[in-house]
Specification:
The protein is mainly α. The protein has 2 domains: 16-37 and 280-356, no CATH class; 40-273, no CATH class. Helices cover 68% and strands 2% of the residues. The radius of gyration is 20 Å and the shape is globular.
């Protein structure tokens, strides 16, 4: 009988807060009136919204260190764990493709988009899960360095402008016009979850694995030091390779992983050591259910033509004359998150957990 890996409430809480933030920034009442911190940077730079996705990928890596690696150390054959990791990754990717197919069919989008958030999560989980099973910690650090430096070497000659950078050129050749952004006049596209930019995203996830190993060993000092060092190196590197979420630049990968590492350390101290409530835990233990369910609900409401009336009658109609157009847009997003908190709260009460 194998040992059950220890579960850190802080990790569930941080994952859940990240999912709640995803819903918040993805569902404003009016995209024309969104407070700046709740929008992605137009190109270079980082806003709070630009931290959300790398935080989630980082936590995927932490979960690999806390869930997959201990099972191997307890005697489960690596081949068995590898199959489980790859099967789970395939299901996550399939869910992402199904969501995009649903959006394509219901919302009359001009083309189907194969890349996306869940697809990137699935790819990173598959690769990092296998690496964690077969590659030593020292070699994992080497792989992180190789991915970040290699991506810099590849990207630098082409620059970091929209549509003309190497990542955009590769995605255009392989997947045009099935991309997040497509400029018909230029004949080029750009996708923030495209092929080449997955390389530094894998590094983000591997940094989560290393931080998870420190957390499991109780080495809080390493988590804090690693977070501070990663954040500082990312800022310094940003002088040569700009911080850019759409390109997932190496500087951005380091900077955001540093922020996530410091957030993990804070959550661990407050929740695991001091006993603070694990706010966000219910979102965290049903993360995929919340993300996929919220997306499906949004697509169905939009397709039915109900979104505008709900927003107009319930929020903008009476709030905008008193408070302006930005507050009702935010209030709608907060209400949407609250609705899904009620859903995951009910699921937790009934011990319903969607395991993908």
């Amino acid at each position: 009988m194998t040992a059950v890996p220890a579960r850190f409430a802080s990790v569930d809480a941080l994952r859940g807060l990240t999912v709640a933030a995803m819903l918040l920034v993805n569902t404003p009442g009016d995209w024309s009136h969104v407070y700046a911190p709740l929008l992605h940077a137009e190109w270079h730079g980082v806003t709070p919204t630009d931290l959300v996705f790398p935080f989630f990928l980082f936590i995927v890596g932490v979960s690999v260190a806390l869930g997959v690696v201990p099972r191997m150390e307890a005697g489960v054959p690596p081949a068995v764990l590898r199959r489980a990791v790859l099967w789970r990754a395939a299901k996550i990717i399939a869910l992402g493709l199904a969501l995009h197919l649903l959006a394509f069919l219901l919302l009359d989008r001009p083309s189907f988009r194969p890349w996306g958030v869940l697809q990137r999560i699935g790819l990173c989980f598959a690769i990092v899960g296998v690496v964690a099973l077969y590659v030593t910690p020292r070699m994992q650090w080497g792989l992180i360095v190789a991915l970040l430096l290699g991506y810099w070497v590849l990207m630098a000659p082409w620059g970091y402008a929209p549509y003309t950078n190497l990542a955009a050129r590769i995605d255009t050749v392989l997947f045009a016009p099935w991309l997040y952004q497509w400029n018909a006049a230029l004949g080029r596209g750009q996708d923030p979850e495209g092929l080449l930019s997955t390389l530094p995203a894998i590094a983000t996830t591997l940094l989560g694995v290393r931080a998870g190993a420190w957390l499991r060993a109780g080495d809080l000092r390493a988590v804090l030091g690693g977070g501070a060092a990663s954040l500082l190196l990312g800022l310094l590197w940003g002088q040569a390779m700009p911080l850019n979420k759409a390109l997932w630049t190496s500087s951005y990968a380091l900077f955001t992983a540093g922020c996530a590492m410091l957030a993990l350390a804070a959550a661990h101290v407050l929740v695991d050591r001091r006993g603070w409530p694990a706010i966000g835990r219910r979102f965290g233990i049903n993360a995929i259910a919340a993300y996929v369910g919220a997306a499906v609900m949004t697509y169905l409401v939009l397709a039915a033509g109900w979104m505008a009336p709900i927003y107009g009658i319930g929020f903008a109609g009476w709030m905008a004359p008193r408070f302006g157009p930005y507050l009702p847009s935010l209030a709608f997003a907060v209400a949407f998150v609250a609705l899904w908190w009620c859903v995951v709260w009910g699921m937790d009460r009934r011990r319903w957990y969607l395991k993908v």
